[in-house]
Design brief:
The complex is a heterodimer of chains A (about 140) and B (about 400). By secondary structure, chain A is an all-beta fold. Chain A contains no helices and 10 strands. In chain A, a hairpin with a 5-residue loop joins strand 3 and strand 4. Chain B is globular. Chain B starts with a strand and ends with a strand. The chains are: A mainly beta (about 140), B alpha/beta (about 400). At the A-B interface, strand 4, strand 6, strand 7, strand 8 and strand 10 of A face helix 4 and strand 5 of B.
Amino acid sequence: MASVRGMANQIPLVDYLVLGDAPHLTARECTACGARFFDRRNACASCSGTEFHTVAVGTDGEVKAFTIVTFAAPGVPVPFVSAIVDCGGTSVRGNIINVEPTPEHVSLGMKVRLATYLIGTDDNGTEAIGFGFEPN
Amino acid sequence: MSDPIWILGIHMTKFGKYPDLDTVDLASQAALAALKDGGVSMKDMGVLAAGCLMASNAGIGQQLQKQIGQTGIPVYNVANACATGATALRTAIMAVKSGEVDMGLAVGVEKLAGAGLLGAGGRPKSDKNEWNPSGRYGAVTSTDGRIGTDSMPGVFAQVGMEYGHKYGGTSFELFAKISEKNHAHSTLNPLAAYTKRMTLEEIMNDVMIAYPNTRPMCSANCDGAAAAVVVSDAKLKTLSLEQQRRAIKVSASVLTSDPYEEGCQVLPNVNTLTRNAVKLAYEQAGIGPSDLDLVELHDCFATAELVHYDNLMLCEEGGAVDFFNSGATWRDGGTPVNVSGGLESKGHPIAATGIANIWEVCHHLRGEAGDRQIEGAKVGLAHVIGLGSACGVHILERSGL
């Protein structure tokens, strides 16, 4: 998203979000079988292989499941749209953002693209940047 | 084929609120009643398997023994999410099947009344004053609500929506109609936590929790316990004719976990492990889905019930919407599902659920289900899913004596 300014001190919400001119997500891909994971790995859940390399995940996708959460844990702002987005064969979990969180505005099969946004600034002046998917 | 295992005695407490009883009291009630139902006592038991998910490190099995009989037998305290009760039962069955013991007791208990939202953690979430990456994703702050949802109603809403995306035909109204059925069924179950019939409009206009699941479409948090006594075939033959007549054959007992598939660590896949479990169960029992007179499946949310019609092969692949719309799963349909009222109205005291659903099936197979009896029921299936995931499937048959 264009509104992410080129501030000196930015940190991604999670380590698989790459910031910069072309923000994108990365995955740890099993060298042996190609299974992709977003978390720190010990081995592959699919083939038990232990070699991984980092791959960029496509930023365009299609909503294959969603829910509009209106009741969440204390401190979690509602409503928000939680979704599973198919990014060229890799399933990604993320919110649908920059859209009204109602069933009229979100639909299965909807085309979306990755977008980033400012979560907040800490005491050191560092900005945390999150990601979501917005209608494409 | 090895000799069958039988359920000799079984009981569930009424599900609801028990402010004056603790989990040990409820587990004791269920266990004592199951033993009495089977005409046996703690002295006959060779093994005890017990679960209480919310206190899974408390040794509920030994606490129970200290109330109803410390006979020195081995205790297995088990925890397997919502499949905890089924896991306890399966543990007792495995012990009997191995030949180490000829009788075992399985107990599941939970106190969950007023527990609120599950899966999202009990502590309020707030950002810290400094962003420091931590955990398996190097997250600088809480991700719940920022990268999807951790809440169970939301996770299972997505499970139902994913089915809709794959096969079409789903809608808010369709999912609400599934809930309408289960609430209607519950009116005949005196042990259900909620027995109020709800109209489709009432269900759809109730508080939205995670679209498309409104509050009555979510499993009801409540207190309760269930227990079962299992016995070997050889031992059963030494017992009275009445005990043999009421004994229920465990034609299949299966527990699976989720095999790796693309996306399964992003949205839990509750489908494949259920299908794997039921395929094995049908094979063990030598029956098919069309032979089932009733099914109790894990409707933790209305959106989950739909996908399990398909996963349990009650309908053709992709045909769950048409199957439901045909009326098949109402109590007067071809494959009655959740005639107990299901988790949405009977309630879901987590560790009790995986034995309570078996109690429901046994009750019908014995012809003892009163007003909600499915006439002439001979074969039934009980299914649970614990997210993470674990799936328990049991197929039960009446003795035929």
